[in-house]
């Protein structure tokens, strides 16, 4: 029985080892991309934006299953095990985690410190460093821009009635064309207040000034303008007092994005295009538009400076590298699954320097504001670790192995007992 005992002890040791791997896997730290973020005593995490990122493994853990660190960037792709648009967090130590997105939810907003992801519609705030998610009081909303202090968010609320009903005389009882509200929300303290920006049928984009003392918002003033894709830009003081100034953008200009305000605070960037305009444009005609960046004086709303050619497939300005705007480009293809998002810095002569490349199939890309403010680009190219899997993956692999080990040990023990009984029987006969 000595050999059987040794084999049983080996099998038990193997089972213990697999159990330890499964239990300790979420806390593993190594240079292979499974490390978790380390926060300094000041609460900030050093990091840079990687030059290239890759598709995650199909079994990659979600943020909730294995929390990581603050984001270096987040991109969106349907090439995950969910087979639909999914957020992919790449933290500042190179770890990859998934951010599942419910059907129809859309893409949320990354906080300036890279620690939180604010979901649209539900208003839920996901802590990327702990995996915890909590519901805020703001539901049915769409976040547009975080304030520079990282404590407030500009959010638009759709007030339209979703279902049209009629009374006994066939009169319409509700209104599907109510003006929307623009809110300043504190998602951490669950407070909100409405900004006086005038009447908008819908808000399409917003941006805070670098000091947080002014807000720019664009949208359509009424339903006919919304159908014609005509926009208006309004600049207001978020502390109150109503609009400072406003300009009509027509159907060929729009606010350049949540980072449209130049770091000097004196210029506001618009994206303008040449090509087909209006709702009747085909997708091919829209993709062929040639874009440029124009500037408005933030004190008067008048045009200032000269335009910068930006090329095609421009999405928005997400930050600045000195005086050079950093733009997100999403290549236009016949299939959305073949699109690709990149970040590039635009020089005054129209030259582009690609800063970040995502894999084919990515449709969006976000970088936290603190890294954009430092222009912290040029980081290493992390790859997703195949070992950064949920606990259930380890258990799924461990259970069959343990069962197979137990089966082999049992078979060998039975064979040993048969041989021993045969040997004892022969001795008795002799």
Major sheet attributes? 4 strands, antiparallel
The ordered H/E elements are HEEEEEEEEEEEEEHEEEEHEEEEEEEHH
Strand content: 25-35%
Q: Tell me the number of helical segments per DSSP (H or I, 4 or more residues long).
A: 5
- Main structural class: alpha+beta
| Rounded mean pLDDT score | 83
Order of strands across the main sheet: 3-2-1-24
Q: Report how far the terminal alpha carbons are from each other.
A: 24 Å
Question: Cα-atom Rg, whole angstroms?
Answer: 28 Å
Query: Which spans of ≥5 residues are poorly predicted at pLDDT below 50?
Result: 1-45
Helicity level, as a percent range? Answer: 10-25%
Give the overall shape: elongated
Total E-strand runs = 24
Q: How do the helices and strands line up, and which of them pair or pack?
A:
Layout: H1 2-24, E1 71-77, E2 86-91, E3 96-99, E4 109-110, E5 116-118, E6 125-127, E7 133-134, E8 141-146, E9 153-157, E10 181-186, E11 191-194, E12 202-208, E13 215-220, H2 223-227, E14 231-236, E15 243-250, E16 253-255, E17 267-274, H3 283-287, E18 290-297, E19 308-311, E20 314-321, E21 324-330, E22 341-346, E23 352-357, E24 362-366, H4 369-373, H5 391-429
Antiparallel strand pairs: 1-2, 1-24, 2-3, 4-5, 5-6, 6-7, 8-9, 9-10, 10-11, 12-13, 13-14, 14-15, 16-17, 17-18, 18-19, 20-21, 21-22, 22-23
